[in-house]
Specification:
Chain B: This is ATP-binding cassette domain-containing protein. The complex is a heterodimer. Chain A is mostly helical. Chain A has 15 helices and 4 strands. Chain A is elongated and about 85 Å long. Chain A starts with a helix and ends in an 8-residue tail after the last helix. Chain B contains 11 helices and 14 strands. In chain B, the strands form 3 sheets. A 6-stranded mixed beta sheet of chain B has the order 6-7-8-3-9-10, with helices on both faces. Chain B has a 4-stranded antiparallel beta sheet with strand order 2-1-4-5. A 4-stranded antiparallel beta sheet of chain B has the order 12-13-11-14. The longest helix of chain B has 16 residues. The chains are: A mainly alpha, B alpha/beta. Bound molecules: adenosine-5'-diphosphate (ADP) and magnesium ion. Adenosine-5'-diphosphate binds next to strand 2 and helix 1 of chain B.
Chain lengths: 382, 311
């Protein structure tokens, strides 16, 4: 234990002594936030043009829902006929059309809401914002419906109370969330890139120590190779934690970006990704014969996969075949988790994503351990 | 108890045998020399002693304990000065020594005093805060030594610590080895420099192609070849010399030319000095001096391997 701490102490001292490292590990993610807010700050001004088709006319509940959508920020909504919908969307006059089917209000009263159809060619990027609010709104009403068990009179009583109390509330809540969420995703995308790079750099210390032969002096002492690698991994994870914490705090506190996900959830999920990053960096170090080879592998692996996984720009802009490929990348699963949580999914519903991330970390660690175990020769590493 | 006991040690890299059935024992208080040309297998043997390379066959014991079974104990009792520098360029001299000594469990004020002592020992006491990247080659070598001795190991192994440094640093290092030895450390000193080994070592093993071809004290080694004598003749110019004719003289074994000096190794029993001088005068050589040497390790090496150490 004391040995491990002694090794950790040395790595931290030499890392923090070099201000370039600080800039890389902590400065860059902050630059990432700045970039994200520059890119997304401008697009916040654009408004979403919606068409609304109401087949459930004469129902107060449905009218209110339409009203709710119209008063959302950055939304311009107008009533249209369903027959016009396709033309308006294809011509680009509308971004999306919402279709309320007949019996919508009734379905709410009975507690089994029919979904509102959304027609768009622009993908969830555009419609996610509206649909997340709409779903939350509908969920609330459906809950009333379920509570009164389809009793129309009781529903109306509760509903009237709810209307007056809640409309104001929702108005204030609905700030510019889509922009905030876009910035968050972009910031996290950059953070993933920097985490991966930092992880490889920190694991690369193992190769550098081999190159300046201090590694052999270490191994000639009572310290074991395993203790040494573990100490490196601990430093690596510690630096990732700092990176994550600094990025999230600066993003939320200084840039006032509301990610739409609780801090601790983001922190823990990103920590899961840190495990993946460190495991990947160990694989790179285990296979690279030199610092040069390691940084070549670093460049070859990290940027292209981050691009494909949607760290740099939304994956919805890419061809479908590439979107499929992204599913083989851990970055995709991290970003996907964030998207889902931002759209209001519960933590339960992203367990699969988290499991996949954990599996990536485990698989990569096993590969690294296997390879390290075979590098017995003094001329190769570990 | 022997500090180091090596029994039939062999290292194979694939089909290549780098260390071949090596056996030796080193007692407490010795300065033991490994003498051998580049590629003889000295570093490979040392890397096995320090557990950096797995052993192909044979056993090594440090202070009576097998180094494979008692790896931590063995490592804790060794200080290694590797052939090539192994120091952190981005750390100060003091931080380097402190860090490596700390690997052996030293902490706090004891660590501080031992690190300072080690730096003073190699003459870097006023360089504590200097970064080693700014050091000269000789200073780096000295720091390389300081990093190996601060934990006061029983056995200090130095693998060619004087390669490529100025004469001043070299004599500093040789003196500090003697001092370390006087202070109670047993030392293994590896070199391909004859004079160094001859100057400081109490016993010597001559290694060639992974094998020990002779071992013992200087006197014992020289006794192997007391049937040899060395004659050095300085002349004005060796241009007209007919080396073959010299070789034909009865008793002469080898003839080497270095500038204006003719070095002849010959059977000690046969008195042929007159014939040699007659031959030189007959070919018009102007003789300036004649010397008959004691045999030295160079001649020992030459006789045993048929090669000079330097090539
Ligand atoms: N890891 C290795 N793989 C293959 N051959 C090696 C390895 N290490 C050393 N050798 C070979 O073993 C021989 C002895 O090398 P070494 O012990 O370094 O010699 P010395 O230290 O006496 O100069 C050399 O021929 C060298 O090329
Ligand atoms: Mg060597």
């Amino acid at each position: 234990m004391s040995d491990t701490l002694w090794l950790i102490r040395k790595t931290l001292i030499t890392t923090f002594k070099n201000y370039k490292n600080l800039l890389l590990y902590i400065g860059m993610p902050i630059v990432g936030i700045l970039l994200a807010s520059l890119i997304h700050g401008g697009s916040g001004e654009t408004t979403l043009r919606l068409g609304i088709v109401n087949h459930d006319e004469g129902q107060t509940v449905t009218e209110d829902t339409v009203q709710f959508i119209k008063q959302l920020d950055h939304v311009e909504a107008s009533g249209i006929k369903e027959s016009e919908a396709n033309d308006l969307i294809v011509s680009g006059e509308l971004d999306a059309v919402l279709i309320f089917q007949g019996g919508f209000a009734e379905s709410l009263r009975s507690g089994k809401p029919e979904s509102v159809r959304i027609v768009s060619i622009k993908g969830t990027q555009v419609t996610g914002y509206v649909s997340s609010y709409l779903n939350a709104y509908i969920d609330n009403l459906a809950t009333i419906g379920r509570t009164v068990q389809g009793d129309a009179a009781s529903f109306d009583v509760i509903y009237n109370g709810y209307r007056q109390a809640d409309f104001e509330l929702s108005k204030t809540m609905v700030e510019d969330r889509s922009v905030s969420q876009g910035m968050t995703k972009q910031t996290i995308g950059y953070l993933l890139i920097f985490m991966l790079f930092s992880a490889v750099n920190l694991s690369g210390i193992i190769i550098k120590e081999k190159e300046n032969r201090t590694y052999f002096r270490l191994l000639a002492s009572p310290i074991s190779a395993r203790t040494y690698v573990i100490s490196n991994v601990i430093v690596n994870l510690f630096m990732m934690m700092i990176q994550i914490a600094v990025t999230l705090i600066v993003m939320i506190r200084m840039f006032d970006i509301d990610p739409g996900i609780p801090f601790w959830q983001m922190f823990l999920i990103l920590l899961l990704f840190a495990l993946v990053a460190v495991a990947l960096s160990l694989v790179i170090v285990a296979f690279a014969g030199s610092s040069m080879a390691a940084s070549a592998l670093q460049n070859m692996l990290i940027m292209p996969t981050c691009l494909l996984a949607g760290c740099l720009f939304p994956i919805e802009l890419m061809p479908a075949s590439i979107q499929r490929f992204a599913e083989f990348l851990p970055q995709h699963w991290l970003l996907d988790t964030f998207s889902k949580l931002q759209l209001g999914s519960s933590l339960d519903s992203v367990l699969l994503n988290l499991g996949i991330l954990l599996a990536f970390a485990a698989a990569l660690s096993l590969i690294a351990i296997y390879k390290f175990g075979r590098n017995r020769d003094m001329r190769s590493y570990i | 108890m022997n500090v180091l006991e090596i029994n039939k040690l062999t290292k194979q890299f694939g089909d290549f045998i780098a260390v071949d059935n090596l056996s030796l024992s080193i007692q407490d208080g010795e300065i033991f020399g490994f003498l051998g040309a580049n590629g003889a297998g000295k570093s490979t043997a040392i890397n096995m002693i320090t557990s950096l390379l797995p052993i192909t066959r044979g056993q090594i014991e440090i202070l009576g304990k097998n180094i494979v079974k008692h790896s931590k104990f063995a490592k804790a009792n060794i200080g290694i000065v590797p052939q090539e520098l192994a120091i952190y360029e981005d750390m100060t001299a003091y931080e380097n020594v402190q860090f490596f000594a700390g690997l052996y469990g030293l902490r706090g004020s004891l660590l501080k005093s031992r690190a300072e002592e080690a730096l003073a020992f190699v003459g870097l006491e006023d360089k504590h805060r200097s970064y080693s990247k700014n050091f000269s080659g000789g200073m780096k070598r000295r720091l390389n030594i300081a990093c190996a001795i601060a934990h006061r190991p029983k056995l200090i192994i130095m693998d060619e610590p004087t390669v490529g440094i100025d004469p001043q640093s070299r004599s500093y290092i040789l003196n500090s080895i003697k001092k370390l030895n006087e202070m109670g450390s047993t030392i293994i000193y590896t070199s391909h420099y004859m004079e160094e080994v001859e100057e400081i070592c109490t016993r010597i093993a001559i290694i060639d192609h992974g094998k020990i071809i002779a071992q013992g004290t200087k006197q014992q080694l020289k006794a192997i070849i007391t049937n040899q004598k060395n004659i050095s003749i300085e002349v004005r110019s060796v241009e007209q010399l007919d080396v073959e004719k010299l070789r034909d003289i009865v008793g002469v074994n080898t003839v080497e030319l270095a500038d204006a000096v003719i070095r002849i190794s010959s059977d000690a029993e046969i008195n042929n000095l007159n014939k040699i001088i007659q031959q030189l005068m007959a070919s018009g050589m102007e003789i300036r001096s004649v010397e008959a040497d004691e045999p030295n390790l160079e001649t020992v090496f030459l006789t045993l391997t048929g090669r000079s150490l330097r090539d």
